[in-house]
Fold this sequence. Notes:
Strand order of the largest sheet: 1-2-3-6-7-8-9-10
Number of helices: 8
Largest sheet: 8 strands, mixed
Amino acid sequence: AAPVYAEAYNVFACVATGVLNGRRVVLVLFRGTKGINDLRADLRTAMTELEDPIEDEWYWQRFAPPAKRRIGLVQGAFVHKGFQEALALVKDDIISQLEFAIGPSGNIDGEPWDVWMVGHSLGGALATLMAVKVYEWVQAVNSEASVSIFTAASPRVGDKAFKRHLQSFGIEHIRLALRGDPIPAMPPRFSGFRHAGPTVRLTPSGHISKQSTWLVASLGSFLSTLPMVLAFPIGKYKPWDWTKAHKTSEYLSALKQAYDKE
């Protein structure tokens, strides 16, 4: 399938297919933050109400309005305004690419299939938001398929109501956060944002641990944001380069070391 690109926020995504454990997998991949336009979306912390997928143009073009909703949209669920604005530029094209990959019958050569939403940094936030829409699309096309979310270095996307809404799908959701990367701790919790999926913490040496308590989560968030504060130059002192731990290459290196330990 052809890549999907929006210049306004420098959003780049693509849809690809493969096979894993005998099932077809459709990957929806979002590129991470790259350039000033992406940072414009990342740093905007204002919230806006979560869009209802059934009100999207792509839904009305394809499906008759359901007599009864398959998914009850949580009233009062709010998400990051910049992320939702960035997703709005590509959501229709992504659904079209999914249809191209699956086929009009809702089956890939008669085989079972699943959708994985994948992204790094801004891409992780967009993958998480797009999962709400893709889940609704999957339910209308082939309810036997599943939707999963796998992100790395993703910032927080929405509030508590959005977290409850996404978790109500019962889909697998994994978030990787590398030690020293401040982006997963942004926007800060005091601004109302919460992560929707469980955190899998990863060290540069490949050690993996699951977040277990509120205290651990809060301490981890505080320590992760320190490099951003220290990045501002003070007199003759050189800023701390916090961006290294956020790079895709650092995550891949840590994952490889974790795999080698197994």
